[in-house]
TrEMBL record:
Gene Ontology molecular function terms on file: ATP binding; ATP hydrolysis activity; endonuclease activity
NCBIfam families per record: phage_term_2
Domain Phage terminase large subunit N-terminal: 24-229
Superkingdom of the organism of origin: Bacteria
Entry-linked Gene3D superfamilies: 3.30.420.280, P-loop containing nucleotide triphosphate hydrolases
Pfam families in alphabetical order: Terminase_3, Terminase_3C
Name recorded for this polypeptide: Phage terminase, large subunit, PBSX family
HAMAP family in alphabetical order: TERL_SPP1 (MF_04145)
Organism phylogeny: Bacteria, Bacillati, Bacillota, Bacilli, Lactobacillales
Database matches in InterPro entries: P-loop_NTPase (IPR027417), Phage_terminase_lsu (IPR006437), Terminase_L_C (IPR035413), Terminase_L_N (IPR035412), Terminase_large_su_SPP1-like (IPR044269), Viral_DNA_packaging_terminase (IPR052380)
Domain named Phage terminase large subunit C-terminal: residues: 262-402
Length: 428
């Protein structure tokens, strides 16, 4: 079978180094819509076909996130290239096999490192690693453990080892910056790149316009999501209070569950945050969400139902009483308005700071907001004890949902002074 590998047609010139460089490390940080993951998917297939010694290890922090992301993306890339029939795609075990030679693509998660270090290729060598969403990787030590397991003499005298890393750079404190982007400390034989939506010719005008608008409406978020630059972690409202974890629903089965809902439309997303709360340990587990612009009432109602709101208390943005009534008419039960008033935002945020937040990997909108939600400054640049009213739709939704667990007594919202006293007693 003759395969036409037209790389210039498949990817932007920004990604040509994936196919021409023999550098040990290729690190790409980029914005939304930059096409970096798609380019990596093509790279996996092309290296398998053109280099008989190559086997791939594809790594994410959580194994359970592979099936609908990296596995699906690489499979799609193979069929887009017209070579899908040359590969066998299996979900148990999760792997891809190149049928002519037996070369493989293995998928693993950093949440089970022993399964990474024990992989052995039966044909060729395990000499390529693709770290997708590398920002999620929790430690440099874990990354180094994987890298040290990829070693040995290659079957091809011209062969080489290579690891590629793709990620959105939410914080400039992450170890990826010093390891691959800072000139003084970056690894030898590594190359680093920053790509944006401008490196992707396949985006429609509406999507591009929404990214451009973000620069005006949410500059902190746009720094990462539009320009692909490092996020600034200074002044984070919930610094040190949130983490990402691939927990199961069984592990939170005994905790009460609620839904917080913040309304948006054209420019701002409607955010629905689904969470369980462990009051004894003061941990909030956010297990699901919807986060989308342009949602009509009927679509919000349907999303609430399909994401599992039935039987759960829903606390919604009280500025939209009409929408709350309309949702009730769409058979969305148990919905009540959030409390608003003087100091309600600041007190709500302070209440939230007495908890820790565990965010499931599927919850993308809230995760991004937690990484970019910062305190405001005055005209002299001094920090204020008040968060910026930006990039906080999922956070507002979660705050609404948590209010009954902290600010209600005998089914009534506490007065402002009672809330202040409660927060004082928490030591916030």
């Amino acid at each position: 079978m003759e395969v036409n590998l037209n790389i210039p047609k498949m990817v932007s010139p920004a990604y040509y180094p994936l196919f021409t460089s023999k550098a040990r490390y290729l690190a790409y940080k980029g914005s939304r819509g930059s096409g970096k993951s798609v380019a990596a998917d093509f790279k996996v297939i092309i290296d398998i076909i053109t280099k008989p010694y190559v086997n791939w290890l594809v790594v994410r922090q959580y194994f359970g996130t592979h099936k609908d992301s990296t596995f699906a993306g690489i499979k799609s890339a193979a069929y887009d290239m017209g070579v899908g029939d040359l590969f066998k795609f299996t979900t148990s075990p999760l792997e891809i096999t190149y049928k002519p030679t037996g070369q493989k693509v293995f998928f693993r998660g950093m949440d089970d490192p022993l399964k990474i270090t024990s992989i052995r290729a039966t044909t060729g060598n395990l000499c390529r690693v693709f770290y997708e969403e590398a920002y999620e990787l929790k430690s440099l030590d874990a990354f180094q453990t994987v890298e040290e397991s990829i070693r040995g003499k290659l079957d091809d005298p011209n062969g080489f080892y290579q690891s590629i890393l793709m990620f959105n750079p939410w914080s400039d404190k992450h170890w990826l910056k010093s390891e691959f982007f800072d000139e003084e400390t970056k690894r030898k034989n590594s190359r680093s790149f920053t790509t944006t939506y401008k490196d992707n010719d396949h985006l429609d005008d509406e999507y591009i316009a929404s990214l451009e608008e973000m620069r005006i409406r949410n500059p902190n978020r746009a720094r990462v999501a539009v320009d692909g630059e490092w996020g600034i972690a200074e002044g984070l409202v919930f610094e040190g209070l949130f983490e990402q974890q691939d927990f199961t629903m069984e592990s939170i089965a005994t905790f009460p569950k609620s839904v917080g809902l913040d309304f948006g439309f054209k420019h701002d997303p409607t955010a629905g945050e689904f969470f369980a709360i462990d009051q004894d340990k003061r941990i909030v587990y956010i297990y699901d969400e919807f986060y989308k612009q342009g949602m009509l009432t009927e679509q919000i109602a349907e999303s609430l139902k399909t994401h599992g709101s039935i039987g759960k208390k829903i606390i919604a943005d009280s500025a939209e009483q009409r929408l709350i009534q309309e949702l009730s008419m769409h058979a969305v039960g148990n919905i009540m308005p959030a409390h608003k008033g003087r100091d309600s935002v600041e007190q709500g945020v302070q209440m939230m700071q007495s908890y820790r937040f565990v965010v499931h990997p599927r919850v993308k909108g809230l995760w991004e907001e937690l990484n970019t939600y910062v305190y405001d400054r005055d005209k002299e640049g001094n920090w204020l004890n008040k968060p910026q009213d930006l990039n906080n739709h999922a956070i507002d939704a979660l705050r609404y949902g948590m209010e009954p667990y902290a600010f209600m007594k005998n089914n009534q919202y506490m007065s402002r002074s009672d809330r202040a006293e409660m927060i004082k007693n928490l030591g916030i």
